[in-house]
Design brief:
Length: 245
């Protein structure tokens, strides 16, 4: 599945380079018309990120997301600064289809594991962002500022006891770079964790990357910058994904 992605800073669509708030590009698009076009083309779900909320919980952009959800009946998954059960309930009350949990999956892992049980595994996506060094997939949190001693594999094992289903895995070195995804990473984790529906994120720059990721076995691809900069169209991406056996 192709999942278009939009990051928001102060209500505007933006892309960060490797998560750096100081290295950002704003995109002047008619968001609501853009979303309507995506739905008409056959997109089933869209990924939204609250960069303000990720940095400071008091600056969450709930009103923006409420307006987006009300303007389309497309399924929406939202991440960025989700730290409490109240945060989750607020997003579900807005009509969000899935919530994306990042740093809390490491800092508050027992509570997050309980959320999987309470809300169901199809409602929660774990966003696990990794630095791959000597094939060790170390997870980073807090907007990628802090590297932890937790590995991707150990973290998935921990949450799999509550039927974890969706994992959004990003190779930090690739995010926002258009340098191509880490295909070997996805091949390895798909092979190891057959029960997980992986969402690949980071580095997609052309349709060859879409083909390679489909062949890696991931369930979905998060695509942001490439679509925003019209390196290929959503129609081309969807057709490419469907045609790879």
């Amino acid at each position: 599945m192709i999942i278009p992605s939009f990051d928001f800073l102060e209500g505007k669509v933006v892309r960060l380079y490797q998560g750096n708030y100081l290295n950002k590009t704003f995109y002047n698009i008619d968001l609501y018309q853009h979303l309507r076009n995506l739905k008409e083309k056959g997109v089933k779900i869209v990924h939204l990120v609250d960069l303000n909320g990720a940095k400071k919980i008091e600056d969450r952009q709930f009103r923006l997301f409420q307006n987006i959800i009300l303007s389309t009946n497309m399924r929406i998954q939202i991440g960025g600064g989700i730290r409490t059960e109240n945060d989750i309930n607020m997003l579900f009350d807005l009509g969000c289809a899935r919530v994306v949990i990042g740093s809390s999956a490491i800092k508050n892992k027992f509570e997050v594991r309980r959320w999987l049980k309470v809300y169901g595994s199809d409602k929660i996506v774990l966003a696990l962002d990794v630095n791959v060094i000597n094939n060790k997939k170390k997870i980073s949190i807090n907007g990628w500022v802090k590297e932890t001693n937790y590995t991707l594999e150990d973290t998935i094992d921990f949450f799999s006891s509550e039927s974890l289903t969706h994992v959004l895995c990003t190779d930090i070195s690739k995010d926002g770079t258009l340098s191509g995804p880490n295909i070997m990473l996805y091949k390895e984790i798909v092979k190891k964790f057959k029960h997980i529906k992986f969402q690949a994120s980071g580095g997609v720059s052309n349709l060859f990357d879409v083909v390679a990721l489909k062949k890696s076995g991931v369930d979905s691809i998060i695509i942001g910058r490439s679509l925003l900069e019209k390196r290929f169209t959503i129609e081309e991406a969807l057709k490419c994904w469907q045609n790879v056996s």
